[in-house]
Specification:
Blueprint lengths: L5 H4 L7 H10 L7 H29 L21 H21 L1 H8 L6 H15 L7 H31 L2 H10 L5 H16 L2 H23 L3 H11 L10 H10 L3 H28 L4
Helix pairs in contact: 2-10, 2-11, 3-13, 4-5, 4-6, 7-10, 9-10, 9-11, 10-11, 11-13
């Protein structure tokens, strides 16, 4: 629940890619629709915890207990780790530098520093540099550590690039016109069209960022036009797109779901009902609430 739901799509100011992709299409920022995002995050958190607590009571009543897997992950070697607050500093620096211009105002930021707001790349660099400075003595080889981190980022870059490319292909195929007409033909609030489009493509690809990237690459311009004609702020479109990406993406074929089950030595039969409730159904409920909030201009 912690990685698939509110932390991934709803929290305003988050450096998560699901929160940043819409900025490229709507000209928004990471803090878009803070009230809507906060309410959505609370729905996912509280709703998920209520479900899991209820399920825990069910399992306890049946006498079902945790059984440690035979092939468990190796435990630490007893080395003293840094204080948790110190470890949190680089992450806080990333979030703060990414959002400082939004907090104090872009004009004030520009007057003080004489430059445009920090991009996510710059914010990440600040966090990386601080982490190196703080934990220099714990890195036997800084270059090797940095290289490993850079290598780990390649997959995310490739996935995002592939989503953009796939979006261009989707727009070119004959069937796209049918999908476009269906989505844009939904009567009522245009945010419903966006939520449906992102959910369908996230479910089809098994990827939140991939599905949203394809949807916005193919339909982003249409949603901008709908924002202008309906008067609904682009910030609302940003947040609904982000939150919608965390709905049907967690269908059984999702790669993260498969990884989770493999790591926990569980099966779809054992755990998917709970995954579906906390990572699919409840997030979709939060999207519905978000659309209702936007209808009364509470974003």
């Amino acid at each position: 629940m912690g990685s698939f739901t509110f932390t991934m799509t709803a929290i305003p100011g988050s450096p998560q890619i699901q929160n940043l992709i819409p900025t490229n299409y709507f000209g928004t920022n990471a803090m878009a629709a803070p009230i809507m995002g906060t309410v959505g995050a609370l729905i996912m958190l509280v709703g998920g915890m209520l479900w899991l607590t209820w399920r825990e009571k069910q399992y306890n009543a049946k006498g079902v207990v945790f059984i440690e897997p035979e092939k468990k992950v190796a435990e630490g070697n007893g080395e003293k780790l840094p204080h948790w607050a110190l470890s949190l500093l680089p992450l806080l620096v990333v979030v703060l530098t990414l959002n400082v211009a939004n907090i104090i105002g872009k004009e004030t930021f520009t007057e003080l520093l004489g430059r445009a707001p920090f991009s996510i790349i710059e914010s990440l660099v600040f966090g990386i540099v601080l982490a190196i400075v703080l934990f220099w003595k714990r890195m036997p080889n800084v270059v090797t550590t940095v290289n490993a981190g850079a290598a780990g980022s390649v997959l995310a870059i490739i996935n995002t690039s592939a989503a953009v490319g796939f979006g261009a292909v989707v727009r070119a195929v004959p069937g796209f016109a049918t999908l476009k007409d269906f989505v844009l033909g939904i009567e009522g609030n245009p945010l419903i069209s966006e939520a449906v489009a992102v959910n369908i493509l996230a479910g089809a690809t098994g990827s939140a960022s991939g599905g949203m990237g394809i949807a916005l690459e193919a339909l982003g311009a249409n949603f901008v036009a709908l924002s202008e004609s309906s008067g609904i702020p682009l910030a609302a479109f940003h947040r609904i797109a982000s939150m919608s990406s965390g709905g049907l993406d967690t269908l059984p074929h999702n790669g993260a779901v498969l990884t989770l089950l493999a790591v926990t030595a569980m099966t779809h039969k054992d755990s998917y009902l709970d995954i579906f409730m906390v990572a699919t159904l409840i997030p979709i409920v939060s999207v519905i609430v978000g659309i209702m909030m936007a209808a009364v201009n509470l974003i």
